[in-house]
Every structure is written in structure tokens, then in C-alpha cells.
Amino acid sequence: xxxxTPVHLHTANKxxxxxxxxxxxxxxxxxxxxxxxxxxxxxxxxxxxxxxxxGIRFVFVNDGSKDDTIAVLETLHAAHPDRVEVxxxxxxxxxxxxxxxxLQHATENGFEFVGYWDADLATPLDAIxxxxxxxxxxxxxxxxxxxxxxxxxxxxxxxxSRRIISRICARMxxxxxxxxxxxxxxxxxxxxNTHSLRQAVARPFSAGWLxxxxxxxxxxxxxxxxxxxxxxxxxxxxxxxxxxxTGRAIRRAGFAMLRLIGERRLGLPAREVDIALPALxxxxxxxxxxxxxx
Length: 294
What we know:
The chain contains 9 helices and 10 strands. The protein is α/β, with parallel strands linked by helices. It has one domain (28-266, 273-292): Alpha-Beta Complex (Spore Coat Polysaccharide Biosynthesis Protein SpsA, Chain A), CATH 3.90.550.10. Mean pLDDT is 78; it is low at 1-16 and 270-294.
């Protein structure tokens, strides 16, 4: 995620991309934010999952990539035109906004469940099925998210620095959300398409890299928090090199989290946050160059 200078821009207009033959066939949409993922996207893994598991659509959000990410996504869409959708932002706006735009698009299109997944597949796609089983078993659960716990027999490989950062984030999340959360930063989330969720993604996030916590906080204000959140211990998670999160982004996110904690715990008024909002474009055949997107 790259840092940006806040500016005043109008909310992006959203238009359907790559119309599908049967738009009501899928019940679940998984948003995959992509920024310069040309060499990291595992097309075979996505294709194999799509062929094996019905009822799940992928909504890829190209976050102003400067490489050939769009061409790679076009290849995947061509192979699965009814199951792969691609949205494009005119310039890089950060993972938080890319995910929000994708979730907003999915919730507006009537999917029963929506979620978001890291493009590097540190969490294998098979976990989507695990999350859906939980969602169908507990109808009052609104959020299922992966937890990278070091449990016996689980294939969870994380560096020491990652574990330290995760613990710090978890402590701040508990204070901001008011729940005993263990891991908020795993890039694997599934959410029920509820009024609470639609309200939560209606406006931009202000916590940057820690937007997951802000999303949880917004949902928990309107939901029955006791059962709304389900932390799923992942059987497998592998750290993938090439993180785009900078030290500056982490510091900015930390200060934003302190403000969120103050708002929730101390009853402080919310502060307006200026954020660069991208213009959302539709990729049409033939694909236009990224720099010409409007």
C-alpha cells in the first residue's frame, strides 16, 4: 500500500464490468484487491478453484497498477467469463479503498455473502469453503475471518516480526472494537450481506493499513457482537514475500487506530477524514491503457 496526500474528490461512480450470462447464479462474491500483481497472481490456483467450486464469483479490483496486472486479469476473465469480474481504479488509492470499492459493488449486486482475499493467496482459496460452512451453520454470524494461530498440526508459517506486529494490532483492535479479537490482519474475510455491512462500506476508511479493524468497529456498532464475529483458525497460511505495506503506512495507521479507540471508548466525535477517492472505470474490450482511464 502506498501513502497518499488527502485531497477532495467525488465518490467514484460504479458501472457493471464484463456482464455475466447469469448474474443471479452466484451467491458469494470474493473481492481480490490487486496492485502490481502481474508476477504474483497464481492463475492456475484461481482457475482450479473456480472449476471445482460453484456459486462463487471473484471480483478483482485493479488498484491503479503500473505493470501488466490488467492483462493478467483479462486472461483470467477470458477463461471464466461468468465467474470473474474486473474493476479498475484510475490511480493507486491503497488496499483499503480498493477493498471498499469491491465490497460496495458486491453488496449492491445482491450477493448473500461477500468477502475479500489477498491476491498472493497466503491463505489458500480452500478456506472460502470452510468459512461458508460456518456462515451456513450459524445464521447470526455476520463476519468470519481467518486467524493465523500457531496450533499443533496447523501449517501456519510466520516470521517473528509478523507475529509481533500482529499482537500489537490485536491489542489495539480489542480496544477499538470491544471484542477479544486475536487476529485482524489476515487477508481472508467473509461477510454476510447485511444492512450493517452496507452501512459500514458506504464511506471511505480512515485507518489505512488497519482498515480491517475500522470495518469491524463499524459493523459491531449495529450488530449483536456476541455472535456476529467468528474467528476461524486457519489450517494453513504461508507468508509471501513482497509486502507493499511501508513503515510510514504502519505509523499512519497506528495514529488512526488511536483515534478510533478514542471515538469508541471515550465517546469522542468522529473527525472527517479526507481521502483520495479513485474514479472507478470499467475495463472493456479492447482494454484501454491504464493511464487513459477516466
